[in-house]
Amino acid sequence: MKRIRLGVCAVTIFFWGAVGTYAETTELSSETSSSTSATAVTEPATQQTESSSSVESNTNGTASSETSTSTIASSTAETTVSSSVDASEASSTSETQPTEDQVYYDTSLGLDPTYRNRSDIKVSLARELRAASSVPYIEAGDSTTPSQDFIDISSHNGMITVDQFKIIKSYGVSAVVVKLTEATSYQNPLAASQIANAKAAGLIVHVYHYSWYTTESGAKAEADYFVSYAKQLNLPTSMLMVNDYEESTIKNKADHTALAKVFENRLKALGYTNTHHYIGISWITEKVIDPEALGKNKVWIAQYPYQPTLQKHTEYSAWQWTYNVTFPGVSGTFDMNSDYNKYFISQGQGGAISDGRYATITKDNYTIWQNFSWTKKADSKAYLGQTLQIKVRYEHINGSTYYSLYDNQGKWVGYINAGGTKVATGAQGNWQSKNTYVKFKQQDTIYRDFSFNKTTKVTAAMLKNTYKVTGTYRHFNGTVYDSVYDMNGTWIGYIPTNKLSVQANQGPAISDGRYVTIKSANYSIWQNFSWKLKYSSKDYLNQTFLVKVRYEHLNGSVYYSLYDNQGKWYGYINATGTKVANNAGGAAISSNQSVTISSKNYSIWQNFSWKEKNKSSNLYGQTFQVKVYYNHFNGSTYYSLYDSKGTWYGYINANGTKLVK
Fold first, then answer.
1. Which of 216, 208, 213, 256 is nearest to 44 (CA)?
2. Tens-place pLDDT, residues 478-514
3. Can you tell me whether residue 217 is helix, strand or coil?
4. Which site among 246, 358, 411, 547 is 20 to 30 Å from 628 CA-CA?
5. Which of 226, 239, 136 has its CA nearest to residue 188?
């Protein structure tokens, strides 16, 4: 693998060309820069915001560019490198970072941000020299480069006006990621203006945090700090929040994958559910962090090729491929990125994915959104049960899928979380429960499928019958189709609801002919299905009735229409208050009585088909145990007789016996 060594000579040669630019973009003298950086690197978590902010404000070039220029110009290139590089960077990081003489760049892989030193609490001139000497300048809009989708900025980019952002946007850039915070001690003092001006220019804005944490508590603290400033700036919870995890001094000092998850989960717990991780290529190639575990669709990779032409790292969400893009009329250079999943150049929803399926709104407590800034358009309740077309869908970075819904007139309904819908197999939508009794109004067509190719006809005979609808479909074409069954449960087909007339809820009378015994004392016996009371079941407890017809009510219950042996109608009772008998004898009723045969002229029956088993005269005077008895539909009571050995003797009319007290 070919490698290029960049030492002091290369830096020194470049320095004289860069010195004018540096003088215009910093207000720190080399002495100030050195002292600030040295302190920051030693104790990044304890830096004061005002100290860090003064470093950030250098790029305005409004305070001491003359001083900076004179300081640099009065020194030789070698002295400048020594004072600026050694004092501001080498002296503070000599134990953890290589010196300029020791830095090697791999030409096959290119650079990653580790060599740039993107930290704002250990800023140095060496970063500017290395950056400019290593990566070629790129002109905005150059069609030979990877896609130029979005930029990311910090206070080093200085104050950018609305007009300047408009220039940037005119070159096809759609979004900007603004640095908010670093560690728990630094806030970008220009963040508010950079965000406001970018939005005013029509750019989509996201934000990032430069991380230093090496413990779980540290990750949570930095996430808290990041969110605190985001809330201070009134940033919506829908905003994409990026974890910039690249600091070289913490590399390999923790389980960075686990801690990145802690950081992400903390953001989510605080309400910011759209997250990403910015990672340099070396952290991945050296297995410092596992992008698979984080989810490659949430990893923004950084690597700067020497000849940026083709798209690379397309398996990730986005790729930062340079930091040297220039825009006409805008000072300085910018980081440039390709957005593969469209999470950055959108509001986190990603790119539109063609769909074309149909979905039925099944939940009434979902919001239908106007946009992905979460402006409410409607409530799902207004469309409950309707079938709509999903023209496109979005796989949002918050983990949810959103459908873009249209009605059958082509009117856009809005975006809804897929959880509030159920995707259908076709334009008919999904089956929805419906229980009603109906009759056909006329001899119409019945459809046997939703291609409308298989049909049958309503016959004249069918017009006389009652049918049951068990479900319905709200078709995308605007018609509601009921699924119709006959009273035996045979499916008839689909027919528009308006072709049916609704019948009473109890349904048609179904011939029965069985016998039942009333077994519960707490049921009502109804006069009609408007629930007018006729009798109470306690007054007829254990009595056997004939069920001439029954009704399968839409409330889920079956009701028996009861008659006695004289043909008198008693009313309707819920079937659960009775027990169906095998015959007119009724249901068995438990007993622990004993009786003595007191008459000689009774038959003892084998069954209630009146097959004789014995005669009472043969058993006269004997005592038997009555284990069960029957209140027969004919009005008589029959005892089931057993002797002391458990031998069954048959049924005898109770009038032929006498109870043993």
1. 213
2. 999 999 999 999 999 999 999 999 999 999 999 999 9
3. helix
4. 547
5. 226
